[in-house]
């Protein structure tokens, strides 16, 4: 066992370090606090009714967790934000920034503990303090992480990394306590319990990490690797002795991960909507991984992009960089394995990077490239050059000056990159400039611009550009339909909706909008068919349920309409218009008492609802005449 770091610093010293971390993070990300929701934020936050927690009670928390996605911890954090600030982005961004800060603090602790386990006594205090300090600071200000911090929904990614590190720290602390030579003689039972308390914390933190995002499913593997590298000194006899336990734990964790994330169906499903095959993805990802390394090394804002347009690899030699990238990866992993006995830290850092990229950069049919995937893997890549500088450069002032310069440059670049995230349109402009052949930045720009009726023609231009880039793009066809409907060109709108549905029959929003268009021309039967399809696709869509109820009521079938209104109100209990329409259905059935009740409920929610006022007055007059 190597000597622990002999330096013992007072609490105020570490408090000062962490305040410096906090200042750096908030200076860099302070200009993002009012940045809008964007892209996947819509599905996961704005349109996700399950996070709309109105009371901080056990029942409501349970309801959020029961209806959460496969990432319940992250979903609950969004619900927590909603409870305090509804859809004010400031609170969401503040939580993201805090998560990033705490991850940096945990990274500092993790590196300091690891250095204490792996370095000889001659390394002493200054090195063991400065290495984790600069490694954590460089990582905290790194421009590549702006996508994980400023893009709200990628909190999932950042939270997973935070709990991942916490789990490792708990395990390491438990193992260190377990190996202590001097147990507490006065309280031997408490002394024996301490390691298991830490191990329990490791398990809980690991589950929280997995519940934040599934890319941390290899955590048990890295706990095993850490044990073997730093506690067992790469002793092969230990592996043979513990092999049954190791296999059992890994299988249990793997089974839990599969059950939680439904890994196999996800992997197969995504290939149905992608433009690449499994072999093409595996070959392309080899190049993507090398590109990630280049972004870590040189993260200039001009190289960062939410929508990288990365060309596919069709064979090992098409392009030839596929073979070269694969050779580099194999070489690096081989170097890590064969050099580990003499240089455990370097070997572990290399394995960390590739291992923590493996899930999102292997067989699962996800999009080819996103910068946020480097958040966890980049931790030890940022540590490695700092460690090597302290190992091989003699003059401490040269090291400190060089690293301070890197921190300054990275901080400026991060702040510049965050300015792009300040508005949705500026994000899409940046994507269009850097990826001119990708369709969805043009579509997103057009859709956001279409929110301003005065710019509808300009919005149509960009949506058309998206359709030119990708003719079989159902979302673009749908967006063009919405734009034409806003221009009162109903026939054209319906044509685009039908084209979108021919490409994507399960496109719920296209069914709803086509149904509304059909209502406007009096085709109630056709509208009912499309609303019914939308309800089948998503029974929890309040708009689909309410629209189907409206059409059935207009068709003279109010008894059939009522269950759909009630279903809509389950999802949106504060929707005054649905209460008004429900009351209208009861009027058609002659149940005036119930009609009065629901008109009253509509007016409680919206006292200025003119339709409900007029309808209630008519019903009250009818009741009076009936007497």
Poorly predicted regions are 1-6, 121-126, 184-190, 260-269
Q: Which descriptor suits the 3D outline?
A: elongated
Count up the domains: 3
First and last CA, distance: 95 Å
Topology as H/E string?
A: HHHHHHHHHHHHHHHHHHHHHHHHHHHHH
Arithmetic mean of pLDDT:
89
Radius of gyration using CA atoms only: 29 Å
- The DSSP helix count reads 29
Structural class: mainly alpha
In which range does the helix fraction lie?
over 70%
Biggest β-sheet strands, sense, barrel: none
Number of strands: 0
Q: Work out the strand percent.
A: under 5%
What this model shows, in words?
The chain is an all-alpha fold and 627 residues long. The chain has 3 domains: 11-37 and 87-179 and 192-420, no CATH class; 432-575, Serine Threonine Protein Phosphatase 5, Tetratricopeptide repeat (Alpha Horseshoe); 576-627, Alpha Horseshoe (Serine Threonine Protein Phosphatase 5, Tetratricopeptide repeat), CATH 1.25.40.10. Helices cover 72% and strands 0% of the residues. The protein contains 29 helices and no strands. Helix 19 (439-449) packs parallel to helix 21 (474-486), helix 23 (508-520) packs antiparallel against helix 24 (524-537) and helix 23 (508-520) runs parallel beside helix 25. The N and C termini lie far apart (95 Å). Mean pLDDT is 89; it is low at 1-6, 121-126, 184-190 and 260-269.
Quick rundown:
The chain is an all-alpha fold.
Indicate the topology.
Blueprint: H1 11-29, H2 41-46, H3 58-66, H4 72-85, H5 89-118, H6 124-140, H7 146-150, H8 155-178, H9 188-210, H10 219-231, H11 236-261, H12 263-271, H13 278-297, H14 321-339, H15 344-357, H16 378-392, H17 396-420, H18 424-434, H19 439-449, H20 456-469, H21 474-486, H22 490-503, H23 508-520, H24 524-537, H25 542-554, H26 558-571, H27 576-588, H28 592-605, H29 610-626
């Amino acid at each position: 066992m190597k000597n622990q770091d002999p330096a013992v610093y007072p609490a105020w010293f570490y408090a000062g370090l962490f305040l410096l971390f906090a200042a750096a993070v908030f200076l860099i990300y302070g200009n993002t606090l009012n940045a809008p929701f964007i892209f996947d934020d819509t599905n996961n936050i704005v349109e996700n009714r399950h996070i709309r927690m109105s009371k901080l009670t056990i029942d409501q928390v349970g309801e959020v967790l029961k209806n959460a996605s496969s990432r319940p911890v992250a979903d609950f954090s969004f619900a927590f934000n909603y409870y305090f600030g509804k859809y004010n982005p400031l609170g969401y961004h503040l939580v993201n920034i805090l998560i990033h800060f705490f991850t940096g603090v945990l990274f500092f602790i993790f590196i300091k503990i690891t250095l204490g386990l792996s370095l000889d006594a001659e390394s002493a205090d200054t090195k063991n303090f400065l290495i984790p300090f600069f490694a954590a600071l460089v990582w905290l200000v790194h421009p590549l992480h702006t996508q994980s911090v400023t893009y709200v929904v990628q909190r999932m990614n950042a939270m997973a990394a935070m709990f991942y590190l916490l789990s490792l720290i708990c395990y390491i602390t438990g193992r260190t306590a377990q190996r202590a030579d001097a147990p507490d003689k006065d309280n031997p039972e408490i002394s024996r319990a301490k390691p298991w308390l830490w191990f329990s914390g490791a398990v809980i933190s690991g589950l929280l990490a997995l519940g934040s995002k599934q890319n941390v499913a290899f955590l048990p593997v890295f706990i095993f690797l850490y044990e073997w590298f730093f506690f067992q000194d790469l002793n092969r006899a230990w592996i043979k002795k513990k092999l049954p336990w190791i296999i059992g734990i890994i299988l249990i964790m793997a089974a839990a991960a599969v059950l939680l994330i439904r890994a196999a169906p996800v992997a197969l499903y995504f290939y149905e909507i992608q433009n690449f095959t499994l072999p093409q993805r595996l070959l392309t990802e080899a190049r993507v991984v090398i590109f990630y390394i280049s972004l870590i090394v040189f993260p200039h804002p001009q190289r960062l992009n939410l929508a990288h347009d990365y060309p596919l690899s069709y064979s090992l030699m098409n392009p030839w960089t596929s073979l070269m990238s694969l050779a580099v990866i194999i070489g690096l992993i081989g170097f890590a394995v064969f050099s580990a006995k003499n240089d455990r830290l370097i070997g572990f850092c290399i394995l960390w990077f590739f291992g923590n990229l493996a899930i999102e950069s292997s067989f699962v049919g996800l999009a080819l490239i996103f910068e946020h995937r480097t958040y966890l893997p980049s931790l030890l890549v940022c540590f490695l050059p700092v460690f090597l500088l302290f190992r091989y450069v003699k003059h401490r002032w040269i090291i400190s000056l060089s690293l301070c310069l890197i921190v300054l440059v990275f901080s400026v670049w991060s702040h510049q990159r965050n300015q792009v995230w300040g508005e949705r349109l500026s994000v899409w402009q940046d994507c269009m400039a850097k990826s001119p052949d990708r369709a969805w930045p043009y579509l997103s720009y057009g859709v956001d611009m279409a929110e301003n009726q005065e710019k509808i023609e300009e919005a149509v231009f960009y949506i058309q550009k998206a359709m030119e880039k990708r003719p079989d793009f159902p979302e673009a066809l749908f967006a063009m339909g919405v734009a034409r409907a806003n221009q009162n060109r109903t026939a054209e709108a319906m044509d685009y909706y039908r084209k979108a549905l021919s490409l994507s029959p399960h496109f719920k929003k296209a069914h709803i909008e086509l149904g509304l268009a059909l209502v406007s021309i009096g085709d109630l039967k056709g509208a009912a068919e499309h609303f019914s399809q939308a309800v089948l696709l998503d029974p929890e869509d309040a708009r689909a349920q309410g629209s189907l109820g409206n059409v059935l009521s207009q068709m003279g079938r109010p008894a059939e309409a009522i269950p759909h209104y009630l279903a809509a109100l389950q999802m949106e209990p504060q929707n005054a218009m649905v209460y008004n329409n429900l009351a209208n259905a009861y009027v058609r059935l002659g149940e005036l008492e119930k009609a009065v009740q629901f008109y009253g409920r509509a007016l409680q929610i919206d006292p200025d609802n003119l339709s409900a006022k007029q309808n209630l007055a008519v019903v009250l007059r009818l009741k009076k005449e009936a007497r």
